[in-house]
Amino acid sequence: MDKKTKKRLEVLRKRLDKLRQQLAGAKSQMDDPSEVEAIEKEITEATAEIEKLKNS
Fold this sequence. Notes:
Elements: H1 3-29, H2 33-55
Helix pairs in contact: 1-2
């Protein structure tokens, strides 16, 4: 794995942590149900990209 890929993985992991915190907050307030869906979609996309980078 080259430096660029490692850096991208690090950035994605940090983003995933932040998204999980946002999801927890959005679920506790539930002001906008579509916000929860959007955050879950972003988490899925970030997780998929991490897996893709790990496998390449």
